[in-house]
Amino acid sequence: MKTSIATVSISGTLVEKLEAIAAAGFDGIEIFEQDFIAHDGPPREVGEMVRDHGLSIDLFQPFRDFEGLPGALRRKAFDRAEHKFDLMQDLGADLVLICSSCHPEALGGIDRAADDLAELGERAAKRGIRIGYEALAWGRHVNDHRDAWEIVRRAGHDQVGLILDSFHTLARKIDPDTIRQIPGDRIFYVQLADAPQIEMDLLYWSRHFRNMPGEGDLDCTGFMRAVMATGYDGPLSLEIFNDQFRGGNTRMLAEDGHRSILTLMDDVRRQEPELTFQMPPMPARVPAAGVGFVEFATRGDEAKMIEASLSACGFQFAGRHRNKDVTLWQQGGARVVLNRETTGYAASAWNARGSTVCDIGLEVASAEDALARAAALGAEPFSQGTGPGEIDIPAVRGLAGSILHFLDAGTAGVWEAEFDLVENRDAGVGIIGIDHIAQTMSYADMLNWTLFYTSILDTEKTPVIDVVDPNGLVKSQAISSPEGGLRITLNGADSHRTLAGRILSENFGAPLQHIAFRTDDMLATAAALFERGFETLPITQNYYADLAARFDLPKDVLADFERYNILYEEDAEGAFLQLYSADFVGGAFFEIVERRGGYRGYGAPNAPFRIAAQKRRLRPNSVPLK
Fold first, then answer.
1. Nearest CA to 506 among 403, 583, 581, 443?
2. Residue 110 domain boundaries
3. Strands 472-480 and 487-492, sheet pairing
4. Residue 279 maps to a domain
5. Is-contact 291 363, C-beta < 8 A?
6. 65 φψ region: left (φ > 0), alpha (ψ -120 to 50), beta (else)
7. pLDDT confidence tier of residue 625, bands split at 50, 70 and 90
8. CA nearest 578: which of 436, 474, 439, 426?
9. Minimal CA–CA distance to 94: which of 128, 126, 52?
10. Residues 336 and 246 both lie in one domain
11. 276 located within any domain
12. Which residues have CB under 8 Å from 302's CB, separation 6+?
C-alpha cells in the first residue's frame, strides 16, 4: 500500500513540507502547482529534491477548466496542457489531475468531454504521461464520479483514467458503493479527505474545512471499502484544505496524516477481510476501561496546596513509593499521584511548567496491544530507567509532551508492586472514581489528539460544540469508550483571552485543565465537602432563578443546589449534577459530577456560567481584557 499526500495539505515551505512528509513515513507526494511556483528553484532541481527525500511525485495538480471549451478557448486549453507536460517531464511526474471544468463558457455533453480527453490522451502518450480525470463536487457540468467514469470509459484511451476523491463523492451524498462497478485498473489515483458535517456551499466547505480521515463525519471507510473492492492498487493520498492546518505544526500534521491513512485502511481490512493489501500489522483498537491515575509533577508549597485540596475533597494518603519521592492519594477508584522527584521526566516537566499534570494512566484491555498499536500508528514510545522492584509500564508521549501510560485493567499491578500501601478507614465524601479528564490545546491540535485517541483506543467521538467564554469561543469535543468508562473532553482554544487559552499561554501548553471525579449522590457528597471546608466555585443567584424556570425541581432541592453551588442539566436520557473547586495551581481545578439515568454529556450549557465564575475569581474587580 503506497501512501501519498498533497503538499497543499500541510503548512510550511516546500522544503519544510518534504522533510516532514518523509519523516512521517509517506512514500510519495502530490505536488501542488502553487507550492512549486513559490519555490525558488528550477523544476529538475525540485524533482531531484523530492527523490533525495526518498519520495516520488505521484501526481501533478491541478489542471483546471480543460474539457468542453469551444473554439479558441479549446485550442488554448491544449496549449496550456502541453506547457504543463513540459513542466511535468522536468519534475519527473507522469500523472496529471484534470478536474472537471468550472469555466463559464464550458459546454456540457459526455461525448464532447470524452473526445477532448481522448485527444489529450494521445498527446500525453507521446510524452509518457497519463491523464487523471476527477469530478469536482461543484463542477459546471460534471460533478459526480459516475459521470466522470462514463467520460473516461467513452474516451477509451489507455493513458486516460479516473481520479476519485472521497470529499467530492461523500459531500454530495453519492453512494460510494457505486464505485464498486468501476474496473480497478481504470482508477489512476485516489485522494482522501474527511470533513465535519456542515450545510454550506460545497466549494467553501471544501476549501476551508477538510481534515484528515477520522477527524470529521464523512464515511471515508465506506468509500475506501468500495475503492479496494475494485482491485485498485495505486497510491492512497491525502488532499486537505484547512485554515487551521495552514498555520499548524508541519511535522505534526504530516504525522497525523500518515496515522489517518493507516487507521482508515486498518478499518477497511477488518471490515472487508477478503480484501488483500499490504500494510503494517497492528492489533485492533484496544478497549479502554477508564482513567487509572493522574500524576502531578510538583514540589514545595505547591505540593502542599494540592495535598490540601485533595484532603478537603475526601482523598486520603494511600501509600509512598519505595524508591522515589512519590505519593499516592486515593478515594474509591480515583487515584492521584504526586511526584516530587528532582530527576527524570517529572522533574523536567516541573522545571518547564511548575506544578503540572505530567502523566495520565489509562486502564485498557491489553497494555501491550495498546502500545503496539500506538507505535504502529506513529506515536512516540516513552521509557525511562526502572529501579528495583519497579514495573516497566508501556507508555507513549501524550499531549504537550506529557506521558500516557497504559495499564492492564482490573489488576493492582504497579500499586502493590511499587508502593508501601496504607489502609484507610475514612470513607471520604463519596467519590467513586474519575468520570473524565479535560485537556486544553489549540484547535488544530484538537483534531490531532481526537485522531490519536480514536485511532488507538476503542472510542467514539461526539460532534464538536462551541463553548461560550465571555471573551471568545472554545471548541470542545468529547471522546469516550462505548460503555462510558473512559471519557476525555478536548477543548480547542485559539484565543488567549478565553480561560482555556489563558491556561495554555500561562502554562506553556499544560496537558490537563481539570479532573472530574464521580459520585453517586451529589447532595451527600456536597454536604460532606461543606463539612470539610472544601472551597467550591461560587455560582450566581441568577443561575438558580433561571434553573427554577427551566426545570421542574422541588424547592428544597433547588435550595440545596444553591447552598452548595451545584450546577444542573438534564436531557431526555437523564440528568447531570456538577460542582467545581476553586483553582489551586496553574489554573487547574477539580470537578465533581453525578450522572443520573443514561446522561452521557458533560453539562455543556453550564460551561459559560462556570467560566464566568472562574474569571470573576481571577480578577474580581476588573473589566474584561481588551
1. 583
2. 3-271
3. antiparallel
4. no
5. yes
6. left
7. very low
8. 436
9. 128
10. no
11. no
12. 354, 355, 585
> Using CA atoms, how far apart are residues 443 and 408, in angstroms rounded to an integer?
31
Amino acid sitting at position 471: N
User: Rounded to an integer, what distance in angstroms lies between the CA atom of residue 236 and that of residue 308?
Assistant: 54
**Cis peptide, bond prior to residue 62, ω within 30 of zero:** yes
Residue found by looking up cell 491544449 in the block = 78
pLDDT band at residue 621 under the 50/70/90 scheme = very low
Mean pLDDT (the chain) is 92
Q: Is residue 135 domain-shared with residue 117, that is, in the same domain?
A: yes
Q: How many domains does the chain have?
A: 3
For the stretch 449-508, pLDDT in tens is: 999 999 999 999 998 888 777 777 788 899 999 999 999 999 887 666 666 666 666 655
Q: Based on the fold, state whether residues 71 and 106 are members of the same structural domain.
A: yes
Site of grid cell 485522531: 451
The C-alpha cell at 147 is 459521470
pLDDT in tens, 378-427: 999 999 888 888 889 999 998 877 899 999 987 767 899 999 999 877 77
Please say which residue of 381, 396, 421 terminates a domain. Answer: 421
CATH number at residue 387: 3.10.180.10
Instruction: Give 89-132 pLDDT, tens digit per residue.
Output: 999 999 999 999 999 999 999 999 999 999 999 999 999 999 99
